[in-house]
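Pilot study result, target chain (283 residues):
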Amino acid sequence: MAQAHAKHHDYHLVDPSPWPFVGSVSAFIMAVGGVMSMKALTLGGLHLGPYLFGAGIIGVLYTMAAWWTDVVNEAQRGEHTRVVQIHHRYGMILFIVSEVMFFVAWFWAYFDASLFPGEAIQFQRAEVTGGHWPPAGIETLDPWHLPLFNTLILLTSGTTVTWAHHALLHDDREGLKQALWLTLVLAVLFTLVQAYEYGHATFDFSGNIYGATFFMATGFHGAHVIIGTVFLAVCLLRVYLGHFTPRQHGGFEFAAWYWHFVDVVWLFLFVAIYVWGYGGGGH
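Predicted structure:
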């Protein structure tokens, strides 16, 4: 009887899981709550939007934590064979490609506005930009101060996460811990510097196209840095739990890929938004 249920293939057939259903319901509640909050909609005279939005976020975060915990447990049971790991890599690659296209949209918006600030057909844009870029009245941030400092911080963190990967491949546990700790310190420092920069910016998100495109692009990147920081922090915890081995460390590998993606996006942001915008862009 035992042989009848033995696995004779390299694939992993997952156990029944509630998390796809719970996650989809939570995401729906979060979306409904967000719309109700932004539109100030009521239900029975009650402003339930913020509460629904908060409940949805809690449900989504709980789903993420529980689902990924199940995936980690599967890996620790040895169910992630080499074939399964390859397919996980395909999935992570597709995810990063989708993230690339997400940022392409913000770059497109920024360059469309900066290259054609006085386009005749876009007469309303010409009115708000004054026909040149940066728009009239906008005092841009000097790219060679805090933005350059943050760029060096993030590039250095890319170096330290590569050091961590190299240490893991050579089963150097102490080097892995030191490199990951240093990466996390640099990641938090980047976020603090960006928050300070935002607090001292002379332009706002609303009321001008420069502020809208600037904060949307750099703000979403900042959110990705925070997500990547959490990703790496979980990896550090798993290192202390002894989860990773030189031959099986998919979770860490994906975190490193994600972090390098964040680095590359920031380089484009630094050149395109800080340097290009500071230099005058289109006329």
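One observation from the pilot: Residues 82-115 form the longest helix (34 residues). A full batch analysis is planned for the follow-on phase.
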